[in-house]
Amino acid sequence: MEKTDVITIGAGGGAYPGAFELSRANRKVVMVDIKGVTSGNCLSEGCIPSKTVRETAVMFSRSRRFASYGIDGKIFVDYSKIVEHKDAVQQARYAMHERELSSFPGLELVKGMAEIQDDHHVLVHTESGDKEYSADYIIIASGSESWRPSIEGIERCIDSRDIFSLNPTLRQVPESLTVIGGGYIGLETASMFAALGSKVTLLEFMPRVLSNMDEDFVSGLVSLLDPSIEILTSASVTRVVDDGKAKRTSFTLNGKEREVESDVVLCATGRRPVIPEGADRIGIRRTKNGITVDASMRTNIDNIYATGDVNGLKPLFHAAVRMSLVAAHNILSGRKTSDYVDLLSIPTTVFTIPAGAVVGVTRKEASGIRLIEGHYRFEGDSRAQIFGETEGEIRLFFDAMTTKLVGGWVMGIDAGNLIGEIAAALSLGAKAIDLANMSNQHPMASEGISSAAREVV
Ligand code: ADP
Predict the structure, then answer these.
(1) Which residue's alpha carbon is nearest to atom 8 within ligand 1?
(2) In Å, how far from its chain's centre is CA 260?
(3) Domain 154-269 - what CATH class?
(4) Closest by alpha carbon to 351, among 316, 325, 320?
(5) 2-145+272-342, what's its fold?
(6) What is the rounded distance in angstroms from the CA atom of residue 153 to the CA atom of residue 223?
(7) What is the pTM of this model?
(8) How many CA atoms lie within 13 A of 284 on its CB side?
(9) FAD/NAD(P)-binding domain: which residues (predicted)?
(10) Consecutive sets of 10 residues in the chain, 457 residues long: mean pLDDT of each?
C-alpha cells in the first residue's frame, strides 16, 4: 500500500491543474488515468481536435470567396491534410503535456483504472497488476463519455471520436451527413462539415436545438448558421439502416414517418458522467447528471471532491480547470473553504460557424432581477466588415438597480474571444460605466463591448 496526500481519478482538465498546484505546495499527489497521459478527453477527442477541424473549415470558407474555380467549376478541400494537421496538433500537445508533467518530480501519473474502496483508499488496476493507495484526499475527475440512445441500427452511426481522435476513422468529407442531436457537439460538427462541403441534415428530438440555453440567444445564433443545413426539431429518430449504398435514417416528425439518406450518420446525443467503480458503494451522492458537489467542489464525503464533467455542473474544459484549482485550494486550506466556483462567470461558447458565446445571467435566468440591455450590431463593426462577416451582435445585460454587469452574449465574429473580456468584467464586478470607459482596440470587434455599454450609461 502506497501512502499519498491526494489521489486524483482521471488526469484531464478536472485533475492536472489542481494536481500541479498541490505539487507546488509540496503535497504528494498521484494521478490515475486509464489513458496514461494528462489532458483527458479535451485533447483526445474533444475541444482541441474539434476546434482544429473547425478553424480549418472557417479558413476554407473565408478563402473560397476569393478563389477562382477550375475548368470543372469546383473547389474542394483536401480533408487528408486537415486530418494530418489535426493529428499533428494533438501530438504536439501530448508532447507538451509530457514535458510539463516531468517538471513536477513529486507528482506521479499511474496508467490504470481506479476503483474507490473507501473514503481513503483507491485500488488501481494496472497492466502489471493491482496497486493500492491510501490518500488523505480523493479528487474524482473521471469526466464524461458520449452516450447513445437505444435506437435500432445506432451502431451504424459514428460518434465524435471517429472524427476527432488521433488517426480517426473518418478520412474524407462526406457528401452528405446526418447528425442526430442538436446539442453543441451536433451543431458544431454540422456547421464545420457544411462549411467543408457536406450536405447536412440535423435531427433534434426536442422542440429546439441547444435546449438548455437561453431561447433568444439560440434563435439568434441559429439564424446566422449556413441555411443549407437542414435543422429539423421535434424529430424522433427511430431507425438507422444501411442499404449498402447509403445510410437511411428514419424519424417521426409531426406524427409522420420520414427518412433521410446520407453517406454518414453522426450520433451526437449527449454525454454522461463517468462514475468510478466504488463511488456508489461508499455512498457518494449523485444524480443522473453527475456527482453532487457544493461550490467548494466537495461531495457529501468530507475528504472527497468531484471536479470537471463528472459533476455535470458545467461540462467544459475551462470550467474543469477552475474546479480542479478550487478543489486544490480547499485541500490546502484544510477543513476551511478558501475558494469556490462561480458558475455564472464561466463562459460557454458554441463553436458553430459563426460561433455564439454566452456568460452569466441572460433573459432566461433573470428571474427576480430587472435587466437593462446594451446592444451592438456587427453590421457597423470595422473588423466584421474587414472579414465580410457582419451578421450578429454583442448584447450586455446589467442589473437595472445597480448597473452592474450580470451577463452577456456574442454571436458572430470572434465570439469565443470576446466573451472572455465580458466574463472577466463580470467576475470583477464591473458596472456599465466601467465598460463604457474602456478604450477598446481599433479595429477589433471588442470595440463593440464598450460601445454596447455606452448605450446604457
Ligand atoms: P474533465 O475535463 O472533467 O477532467 P476529461 O474527460 O478530460 O474530463 O478527463 C477524464 C479522464 O479520466 C479521462 O482521461 C478518462 O480516461 C479518465 N478516467 C475515467 N474514469 C477513470 C477511472 N476509473 N480510472 C482512471 N481513469 C479514469
Answers:
(1) 143
(2) 28
(3) alpha beta
(4) 316
(5) FAD/NAD(P)-binding domain (3.50.50)
(6) 32
(7) 0.96
(8) 30
(9) 5-323
(10) 98 98 97 96 97 97 85 84 98 97 94 98 98 98 96 96 98 97 98 97 98 96 98 98 96 96 97 98 97 98 98 98 98 92 97 98 85 97 97 98 97 98 98 98 98 97
